[in-house]
Amino acid sequence: MIAIFTDFGVRGPYLGQMKAVLHDQAPGVPVVDLFPDLPPFDVQSAAYLLPAYSQTLSDQAVCLCVVDPGVGTERRALAVHADRRWYIGPDNGLLSIVARRAEHVRVHEVTWRPETLSASFHGRDLFAPVAARVARGDALSGWTAESAVVAEPDWPEDLAAIAYIDCYGNAISGLRAAAVPRHSVVEVAGCRCRHQRVFGEAPPGTPFWYGNSNGLVEIAVAGGSVAARLGLGVGTPLLVGDRSSPADS
Amino acid sequence: MIAIFTDFGVRGPYLGQMKAVLHDQAPGVPVVDLFPDLPPFDVQSAAYLLPAYSQTLSDQAVCLCVVDPGVGTERRALAVHADRRWYIGPDNGLLSIVARRAEHVRVHEVTWRPETLSASFHGRDLFAPVAARVARGDALSGWTAESAVVAEPDWPEDLAAIAYIDCYGNAISGLRAAAVPRHSVVEVAGCRCRHQRVFGEAPPGTPFWYGNSNGLVEIAVAGGSVAARLGLGVGTPLLVGDRSSPADS
Amino acid sequence: MIAIFTDFGVRGPYLGQMKAVLHDQAPGVPVVDLFPDLPPFDVQSAAYLLPAYSQTLSDQAVCLCVVDPGVGTERRALAVHADRRWYIGPDNGLLSIVARRAEHVRVHEVTWRPETLSASFHGRDLFAPVAARVARGDALSGWTAESAVVAEPDWPEDLAAIAYIDCYGNAISGLRAAAVPRHSVVEVAGCRCRHQRVFGEAPPGTPFWYGNSNGLVEIAVAGGSVAARLGLGVGTPLLVGDRSSPADS
């Protein structure tokens, strides 16, 4: 399976052209829009969402990752094998968190270039053909160089900020829920949110946090948009505190 | 074929994760987003749209139906065979209209649960695996219990209200057009709409109603958005009257 | 491969129903949303985008083209073979530019009609079955009539206007970049834009034009929405001038 992880958005001619290449060059391999509308140009938010949203994919799935504001300028193209999955994308930090957290990582720099490479659409012209080739199970010798490393920006262990607002207005952070005790208070935009297990158990109208189905801290309100309610956007910081802290009184 | 009918919306990571499960667990079965952006949390509107928008599917198609505001709280999971198609979803009323209208119905309660069941994403963890299993043609014994009934909310025969606004601004109701004589006037938001056969024959700028290609009464205006024009939204009621009634004068 | 090129938009039940027909009637043929949200009802913009966005498809790909404001009124259905690809759609001008520019064109009028043809959804009922049949490689005799011509509206060689605003706010025109020298100034909404090769080399905040990855002149600004910035919309005209012209001083 090839899973697309990009900021192209669901509209327009970008996803479709990339999928046409994938179907042509990896016939019979299912192609899925895993996360097609990441925050535009926001490599950091995408980097923290990638391990969470690719972890439910089956072994040997190939993630085609394209958040690439620097397209057309100089940066390497990578094929990273992290634990049991492949990640194809630019070496701009996008793959750094998935690589950092994996137990077993092999990094391949893609040295192959297509005959025709547009200046602005490497997703279609470079990364999709590479993903197709990896998904077909082609040997990597001859067109990749092993033992490269992934560019590691100076980014924290977790991202204590909103990384995506979903279509219900729920605000997904880059913070792993496993690291946040359930009795913690998560403060966002001046609102102190307590933990709830599920939407159905949350008091109507009261923003809460919960560990979402991909293991991230998510801010929500039952039956409404917490983003509209609290004015949250991508980048809004989260503060994790203790329920008994003075600020709670 | 597996046809997805949900309020997840086309954005974000929800549809994609569900499709990844379907491709993994029912390899080779085509997966289609039949209606991916039903009104959020609105089980009733979805219930009336379901028979209309699944009727064009081929025999033995499997509809994966997820409009599930109560996810994580107690309700049954169903696999309903209604006439020649399968419907998989929560027993919250979503499948009640399709079951009520079918000539032949078999209801199976799904007793199987996955090893890992998130609290908030049963579409991916429970309903998609069930849809995959039914689409593969697995026998139902051992993991479903037959002869259950579908929960029937106290809902009318047809829904005389707007159930969906499409991307052109057309307003689709939950009212079957076959039950509305063509000489009827349909009143919505204070506007008395007459019948037109097609957009191309409607006087420009005058809202009209027609029987849409899925057999529902739809309010429209040629070349524009009737929803913006009349201020229509999901839930706006329709009133079907007679052209010669006093209110028309 | 069948590539869908339409103004249906990514929301709602239209794309999905069309794809269900394609998978049923052309089993095993990949289906791709090539350009699913063309400007609504705007046949001319779509006609100029079609050759640019279908040129990257492989040989014998079938483009299912549905921008059809006159659906339900009288117009022919066509299957056009232009150079190495098929184009299926209404004879309302939508296929005229791709036919005009092709070296080798064969035009077939589709005389077949389905048993059930809704008045408002020929994409699903007529054009999708035709696309499936052509994609399966069926002979064309018996249900099409050869040697028809494509309706040619009185449209210019290129369309010097914005034809689509993408999700980043970039403004794609109907003007082929190969015809515009790089030293040209492109004036749009009162702003005189110079050429840049890639986003990464453009001065931040300054609108520019470039030849996009499908060969069209596109107006953009690095890291932002040029459409919002300059108030551009579909139909906004472009004026191509010379950098040394008096208006530049």
Keywords:
homotrimer; 249 residues; alpha/beta; seven-stranded mixed β-sheet; 20% helix
Report what the structure shows.
The structure is a homotrimer of 249-residue chains. In chain A, 20% of the residues lie in helices and 29% in strands. With 249 residues, chain A is α/β, with parallel strands linked by helices. In chain A, the strands form two sheets. A seven-stranded mixed beta sheet of chain A has the order 2-1-3-5-4-6-7, with helices on both faces. In chain A, strands 8-9-13-12-11-10-14 form a seven-stranded mixed beta sheet. In chain A, strand 1, helix 1 and strand 2 form a beta-alpha-beta unit. In chain A, helix 1 packs parallel to helix 4. The model of chain A has no long low-confidence stretch (mean pLDDT 93). Chains A and B meet through strand 2 of A and helix 1 of B.
Question: What's the short version?
Answer:
Chain A is α/β, with parallel strands linked by helices. Chain A has helices at 14-25, 43-54, 96-101, 122-136, 226-230; strands at 2-6, 31-35, 62-66, 77-82, 85-90, 105-110, 144-146, 159-165, 171-176, 184-188, 191-195, 208-211, 216-220, 238-242.
